[in-house]
Amino acid sequence: MQTCVIKIGSNVVTQENGMPDFSRIRSLCTQVSLLKNKGKKVVLVTSGAVAFGRQHIHLPEKINPVLKKQIWAANGQIALIHTYQNMFAELGHSIAQILVTKEDFRDRKHYLNMKNCIEGLLSQGIIPVINENDTVAITELMFTDNDELASLTAAMVNADTLILLTNVNGVYTGPPELPDSTLIQMVDQLTQNLSNFIQASKSSFGRGGMLTKLNMAKKSANLGIQVFIANGKKEGILNEILDGSAICTRFDPSPIKHSPKKWLAHGEQYYKGEIMINEGAKKALFSNKISSLLPVGITSCSGDFEKGDIIRIVDDSGNRIGLGKAAYSMKALGEKIGQKKQKPIIHYDYLYLFTYE
């Protein structure tokens, strides 16, 4: 572990009554400090702003739920970040706050600016503390939960490790509270589909559940990032993960993907257009030979994309093949479909194929 993204879930930093758990936050800050003192670079993705806001502001039940959350988040984010700032300062570390929305990951240039900022903070020994900007995010553009944000962040900063802290030990073969459910300690590409074991229930104070953690963990592992789903309520859990003694679920990483492919891997919800390819083009893309996508293999296109936008690739049966960065606009592609000796619409370096679903 050299660069680690740690996601701290709502149920980790809140008590059963929904109020902030300051002793748990302090413990996690102490554990992160120990990682820092061992030379590790750490990025925190933290939930908890709504819980901090809820303790100070009492709102009528009739208020719109989205507005209620925005108010609590806007107020609570101040207290949350001050809590981290004060606790880390006592441990000799500085932090920086970064609030993001899903839109921030859509544009490649904006994405690189954010990446450079976070890497700049890390180079100076500063801990970036990242959270979704709930005050401006609308439902359609919200992250599934902070597991998705953490997974995106890990890919962006080329982290080698992603730790998703929740209030259970990891992924079980059934509901964790049942005695016959057992913990799955290792997941690799040969592991059977774990979603069959998982109930699509959400946590008490967060938006997501184990199913989203599983999906994000699998996607991150496919990019070459080792992932741990672990119990953030357990004392010393981060050190146990570091020394290999933790009781948790670990996702074995695939070979590391290049940075542009990491950006594209999370672009399923950002694509601006779609192109359909024929069987010959599909075989070429999935062959052992490095292949870009040429107009000659395209049968149709739809949407409204410009150069640099993310576009989705489907086969002639409509099955999802992958994602890529458009080398030119849809209008320009429309004039080249099916033609030979044309510039690739998606260069191999900006092509991500779905191979780990």
Automatic annotation (TrEMBL):
Summarize the protein's role.
Catalyzes the transfer of a phosphate group to glutamate to form L-glutamate 5-phosphate.
Residue sites binding substrate per the record: 47, 134, 146
User: Which reaction(s) are listed as its catalytic activity?
Assistant: L-glutamate + ATP = L-glutamyl 5-phosphate + ADP
Q: What class of enzyme is it?
A: transferase
UniProt protein name: Glutamate 5-kinase
Q: Does the keyword ATP-binding apply?
A: yes
Sorted keywords for this record are: Amino-acid biosynthesis, ATP-binding, Cytoplasm, Kinase, Nucleotide-binding, Proline biosynthesis, Transferase
Name where it's found. Cytoplasm
Q: Write down the HAMAP family for this protein, in alphabetical order.
A: ProB (MF_00456)
Domain PUA per the UniProt entry, residue ranges: 273-346
Q: Its Gene Ontology molecular function terms?
A: glutamate 5-kinase activity
Which pathway, metabolic or otherwise, does it act in? Amino-acid biosynthesis; L-proline biosynthesis; L-glutamate 5-semialdehyde from L-glutamate: step 1/2
Q: Does the keyword Kinase apply?
A: yes
Assigned protein family: Belongs to the glutamate 5-kinase family.
- Annotated SMART domains: PUA
**Species of provenance:** Fontibacter flavus
